[in-house]
């Protein structure tokens, strides 16, 4: 029975017809299209969520900045960065941010009590007549002579009627460093009914008494003249005001030269703090950000809306580092990265990449992450569609720096050889822009023939006495005479 069953031939599977095959293919194509549409819908939803997250992160950073400002005001200028703890896992580097922040909370201060409407003002208590002293001298830089006029209203010191004259004698006999400038007191009041002889105020030690000048007209009263002098000094002279310069490049050059001279005179070079480094990088990046990403300064609603859309597009998933920001493709290939490196690190003769050439043989991972962080900060200043300057500090930018540092390390770990060459190429382009050649070690001037001559010259000498060198000098003198 078993043998008969085994001999029965098995049924062959029938092949589907062409019509059935075509139907199956159409069904699979329709299902694939549905799946692709569902995937695209999920991607769009994910992108929208990421854009919302970008705006929420922006709001959170503003809240943290406001909290830091309130903390500073409540704690007499103490910053939250002073409470940061050192973390061993924090990537160290000259340009890195701090990683951990510890806060002890915010101490609320009671509001000031304001005076209600209708209540009388509290009068200020007048000073005691016993404590009235002579007025403090006023330094006047407008005149070229040195005058001291005693104030007639100043009461003498208590217990001594001649104290005023003694003070004047002390000023004239014991010169002070203030004599290099012009010191002038307020002029004494003059009774219009009294004559010049009734007011014999004379400076001790001087030959002539200075009588107060009477106003020549109503418009030349002492108060008007004083106001005119103050206005003239406040206005300044032409050529000194800051508005007379088109840019602050001249001032920066002067400050740099003064700083270099002071460091050379003192014998030590003072390095900039990390905050100064970040601020200098931000000032160099602002114009590049506007030119590269085409932000426009305008009050039109259309332009403001376009700036907002650009900000959201660039801030989503770090798209500002991509060469194709909309598609999030070719990350770390945006042309602004080498432009920033060239402009800041190799832009002038005092740039960091030129002064510390060995440290900038290639662009370090920490430096590249810092560049990304400050670029993102400059883009965030356009979040509302118009430019609004924001503070750059390590409290609010530390999370962004650590995120960019992780991304840069992941990019470098993909192919260390290629990424290393790219970072080295960026530094090389910066040196080429600054017309600075890298250091090259020379092979020297002594070849093999010269070595043989040196060995022959050293034969027969011990180098322990000066007589050998004198004998060589005498031999050279004889050779020169024979040649002549």
Automatic annotation (TrEMBL):
UniProt biased composition (Low complexity): 154-165
Pfam (any one): DUF6532
Ranges annotated as biased composition (Basic residues): 12-21
Region annotated Disordered, chain positions: 1-27, 78-131, 150-229, 458-484
Comp. bias regions, Polar residues: 93-106, 166-185, 213-224
Acidic residues compositional bias, start-end: 465-477
InterPro entries, per database record: DUF6532 (IPR045341)
Record-annotated DUF6532 domain positions: 246-411
Name of the featured protein: DUF6532 domain-containing protein
Organism: Armillaria tabescens (Ringless honey mushroom)
């Amino acid at each position: 029975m078993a043998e008969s069953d085994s001999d029965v031939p098995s049924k062959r599977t029938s092949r589907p017809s062409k019509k059935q095959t075509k139907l199956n293919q159409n069904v699979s194509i329709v299902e694939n299209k549905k799946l692709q549409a569902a995937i695209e819908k999920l991607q769009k939803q994910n992108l929208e969520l990421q854009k919302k997250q970008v705006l929420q992160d922006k709001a959170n950073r503003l809240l943290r900045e406001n909290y830091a400002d309130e903390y500073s005001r409540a704690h007499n200028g103490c910053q939250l960065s002073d409470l940061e703890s050192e973390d061993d896992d924090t990537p160290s580097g000259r340009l890195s941010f701090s990683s951990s922040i510890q806060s002890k909370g915010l101490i609320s201060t009671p509001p000031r009590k304001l005076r209600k409407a209708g209540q009388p003002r509290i009068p200020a208590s007048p000073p005691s007549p016993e404590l009235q002293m002579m007025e403090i001298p006023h330094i006047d830089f407008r005149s070229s002579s040195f005058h001291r006029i005693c104030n007639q209203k100043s009461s003498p010191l208590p217990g001594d009627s001649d104290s005023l004259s003694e003070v004047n004698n002390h000023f004239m006999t014991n010169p002070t460093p203030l004599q290099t400038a012009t010191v002038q007191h307020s002029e004494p009041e003059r009774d219009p009914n009294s004559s010049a002889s009734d007011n014999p105020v004379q400076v001790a030690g001087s030959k002539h008494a200075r009588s107060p000048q009477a106003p020549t007209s109503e418009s030349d009263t002492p108060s008007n003249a004083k106001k005119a002098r103050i206005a003239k000094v406040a206005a300044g002279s032409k050529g000194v005001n800051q508005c007379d310069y088109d840019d602050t490049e001249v001032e920066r050059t002067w400050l740099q030269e003064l700083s270099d001279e002071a460091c050379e005179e003192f014998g030590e070079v003072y390095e900039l703090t990390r905050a100064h480094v970040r601020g200098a990088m931000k000032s160099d990046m602002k114009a590049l950000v506007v030119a590269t990403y085409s932000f426009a300064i305008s009050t039109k609603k259309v332009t403001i809306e376009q700036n907002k859309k650009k900000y959201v597009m660039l801030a989503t998933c770090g798209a500002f580092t991509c060469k194709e920001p909309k598609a999030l493709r070719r990350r770390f290939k945006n042309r602004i990265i080498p432009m920033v490196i060239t402009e800041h690190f190799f832009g002038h003769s005092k740039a960091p990449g030129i002064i510390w050439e060995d440290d900038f043989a290639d662009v370090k991972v920490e430096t590249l992450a810092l560049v990304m962080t400050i670029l993102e900060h400059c883009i965030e200043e356009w979040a509302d569609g118009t430019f609004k300057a924001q503070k750059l500090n390590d409290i609010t930018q530390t999370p962004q720096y650590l995120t960019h540092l992780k991304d840069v390390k992941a990019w470098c770990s993909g192919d260390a050889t290629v990424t290393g060459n790219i970072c080295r190429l960026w530094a090389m382009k910066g040196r080429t822009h600054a017309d600075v050649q890298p250091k090259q070690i020379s092979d020297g001037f002594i070849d093999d023939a010269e070595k043989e001559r040196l060995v022959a010259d050293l034969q027969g000498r011990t180098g322990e006495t000066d007589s050998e060198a004198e004998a060589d000098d005498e031999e050279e003198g004889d050779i020169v005479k024979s040649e002549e």
